[in-house]
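#struct-help
A.M.: can someone run this one for me? Single chain, 570 residues.
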Amino acid sequence: MPNGQENQEQKNGEIEKEEGIEKEAQILQQKDLSSKKEPVQKESKITSFSWVEIAIYGLVVLFVFLSVFLYSQGNIAKKRDAERMQNVNLLKDALEKYFNDEGTYPRIDEWRCLEEDVREGGEFSQKVKDYVSQIPQDPLYNSQDQVFCYHYKTGDSGKEYRLYAVLEKEKEVYQVYSPNGKRIYTGILGETPWYDFSWKFRKKIKIGKEKIADNLENFPLLFYLKDENIKLRANPEGNDILLATSDGKKLEREIIKYSSSTGELWAFLKVPRLSSSTDFEFYIYYGSSGASETNSEEVFDENFFFLHHLDEDSLFTTTTATTTDSSRHKNPVLVVGGVKQGVEGKILKGAEFDGIDDFFNLGSRKIFYGMEGLTFELWVKPQGEEKTTIMEEGKEEEEEEEEEEVVKKEIKKTFGKEGKEYEYRGIFGWEETQSGAWQLVTSLNETSFSSGYYKIGSETPLKLNDWNFIAGILAKDKMILFINGEETSKEVKFESKVEKGGGKFAEIGRYYKETSFSDEEIYKTYTFSGVLDEIKISNIARTPEWIKTSFENQKDPEGFFKVEEGEEFY
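D.P.: on it. Structure tokens below:
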């Protein structure tokens, strides 16, 4: 083979080899490109989000932002309060230095915002400029409302001062009070908010849960307090005496007596709820020159329809029926006989009946119509005599003992000065028909409560010439009689024939012409001999726990409450 031909074949082989290599490279490049495209498509599926997910993430971010914002705002308010307390102490130190030099404080008789005083170049800023480098300004001072500023005034011709700042936390007040140059109070007022800053003084009153028989609603509580500070600080008329709960709700009250000369207060309060498991706390406020508080007719609920305290010296007359009923029904009373009014009672004053012809005429018997039930409560002091008679004297022999003198005595009690031992005395009486009637009568041996032909009696005798609390409950299914807060009879039984007088009446102090026959003996009911006080009649059946709590409260009203130290606000 010629050399030229060999060379040509060699060249062709090299060209084919290069072309093969180039094709393999192209194939590898295509595979590499196709392998790079697949991950891009998969990644686009992973990074997609729904609108619901985006909204949730946004709310989480917003919540975190608000939490951080509110927390920072609370911290800022606390820092401002700390600054206020620091500034009050700064002013206090300056005032004490001024007092040591001058013997008085910078005199300002009415409350003055010190920031305003500085702005106007007032008397305070001029006098203390040598004792403090700069009068501080409240962090939130606003000349328009002047709530957040340092308030100052003097009393007793400049011998004492009051200084306070309002804090942002629950609007408490940080105050300083310094009579005669001696600071006696610095600090934050207690957790209980002040009812109204127009009242300068208050005392906390507490009733222990152990004094309440059960949970009671709208209970008329008898409140008694004799306090030297009230005597000195309250208005002479007592028209600034206000009572409020710890959460700032005003209590309806009826003041039945206030003495500015002794600081003695008697009042009934309407308590929305008393609990046998939780102590009840309230406050008495006083010391507000512009106050004009008055008695409320809402103290006793609408179910009280006859209620007399009997505290006046001449409450009722024999000629005109007088309406002094503390209930909302204002039922009148007419005196019959010579009932003595204004005598010493269990709660202040009472009414004395002579046992002969004294009683209260309640006028129309219709006041008792349509009752769903009945509850009566009153204090009774029966008057009578107790005579001791020596029946026999002699000697007795006892085995192996010396003879001993024996004296047998018989004690006889009678109602009234000339009363008989077994006389019955009427306390309440109402009659419309023979069956439509109820009455409360007592003797020295028994007190009975009857309605129509039904009667229950207590064999527990009343204490003679002493106070007894009598109460009764009448409902469709029960009759209960209470003596001094305790149930003495609950059984309902049929009683022997009772002949009424036939009159239609409603009376207190006797039961009109009632004559009862029992075991062939005749018993006549006479008028009551003694003193009655605090008469309450309701047209519903109250609970036994209501009666027990009433007794405990009225038996010793001073001991029913615990009075704590007073607080003063300036």
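A.M.: thanks! Helices lie at 3-46, 51-102, 114-120, 123-128, 228-233, 544-555.
D.P.: also worth noting: Residues 1-6, 33-46, 395-404, 493-500 have pLDDT under 50 and may be disordered.
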